[in-house]
Design goal:
alpha/beta; six-stranded parallel beta sheet; four-stranded mixed beta sheet; 10 strands; globular
């Protein structure tokens, strides 16, 4: 039986992970969990899993206690569902204490992927992506010899404004941006999906996770969210991973890895008609996607600056301090600075993150 620790247990990924643990009590047990603010969730989980260790408080307040907490959990794998750049400290702690990492916190890889992967390799640990797109790529690349893969194709739902005319962007409200057409997610990632910043971050993540340059990555809009990603081989054959849009699929895959995932949820029903739509992204109307490609290609501190500026801008939008169209303008402004310094340790990552946030002035 695998012992699971869930970081960010009250968030969307955390709650889905708890559901997986509940549905497979013979395979998994909850060894511990963290919550930032949701005392009700903490109380409920403590009553349901009395043996689980608990860590409460925002990551900034509890970071000194993370490693002792993880050691006390005596877990086999950690699911990091913490939102934003703050999740990097938790990822570092997981690797440091010797835990395999099921990673939903894409910012960890965006900011410090090469450092985390290097540390994990030294300890013979696995980092398994939990993003539906990167989980699909992970599965597909593992199914083939990586040397045969020519191109990674990331699918994007297009978000709630996929067909909205650019002239109407200035009228977009927070409430409208939070209404994702296919997925039920937290506020930050929902806004990122509406601006396509989420896909930009996933491009950076794919570069870091799979050692593939931006020239070999394609983003395609697929509004049904059934094909979660594809690979193109050198022979030009294309293979994709398909399933109903439910985050429990990639979570269960990560929890079971390296063993095959158990049968779970419903498969696609081919006895009924359904369509798959693919279209190119509207790069001019959603400029953060191109900025993400450019940041990934430039490397060094540019992905850190991109992520930091976007986080600040999204929070300002959620709080009514900026408009939807001002989000990419702020990110573009920050990226105009020089972020070309070489990064060889985590302290440099945090320093650049702090510097970028300090530049975010409306």
């Amino acid at each position: 039986m695998k012992r699971i620790v869930v970081l960010g247990a009250s968030g969307s990924i955390g709650l889905h992970t708890i559901r997986c643990i509940e549905d497979f009590p013979d395979l998994f047990t909850l060894a511990g969990f963290s919550v930032a603010k949701s005392k009700d969730v903490a109380l409920q989980l403590s009553q349901q899993f009395p043996q689980a260790k608990v860590l409460e408080g925002p990551i900034e307040d509890i970071e000194k206690n993370i490693e002792p907490f993880l050691v006390a959990c005596n877990a086999d794998i950690a699911v990091n569902g913490i939102s934003g750049a703050a999740g990097l400290k938790a990822s570092i702690a997981c690797i440091h204490v010797g835990l395999d990492l099921a990673l939903a916190n894409k910012e960890s890889i965006v900011l410090a992927g090469h450092l985390l992967r290097s540390d994990a390799k030294k300890k013979d640990l696995h980092i398994i992506p939990v993003d539906s797109e990167h989980s699909a790529l992970f599965c597909l690349i593992n199914a083939f010899d990586a040397q045969t893969v020519e191109r990674l194709i990331l699918t994007a739902s297009g978000g709630p404004f996929r067909t909205l005319a650019r002239e109407q962007f200035s009228q977009i409200t927070v409430e409208a941006a939070l209404k994702h057409p296919n997925w039920k997610m937290g506020g930050k990632i929902s806004i990122d999906s509406s601006t396509l910043a989420n896909k930009a971050l996933e491009v950076i993540e794919a570069v870091q996770l799979f050692d593939v340059p931006t020239e070999r990555i394609t983003v395609v809009v697929h509004p049904e969210s059934i094909v979660h990603s594809l690979i193109q081989l050198h022979s030009h054959q294309i293979y994709g991973q398909m399933s109903i849009p439910d985050m429990r699929f990639p979570i269960l895959y990560a929890l079971c890895y390296p063993n095959a995932a158990c049968p779970y949820l419903s498969s696609l029903d081919f006895s009924k008609a359904f369509s798959l739509t693919f279209e190119p992204p509207r790069y001019d109307d959603f400029p953060l996607l191109k900025m993400g490609f450019d940041a990934a290609k430039a490397g060094a501190g540019y992905p850190i600056a991109f992520n930091a500026a976007n986080e600040v801008a999204v929070q300002a939008f959620l709080e009514g301090r900026c408009t939807f169209v001002e989000i990419p303008l702020l990110v573009e402004k920050v990226l105009q600075a020089d972020w070309s310094s070489t990064i060889s340790e985590y302290s440099q990552v945090f320093a650049l993150d702090k510097k970028a946030r300090a530049m975010c002035i409306f």
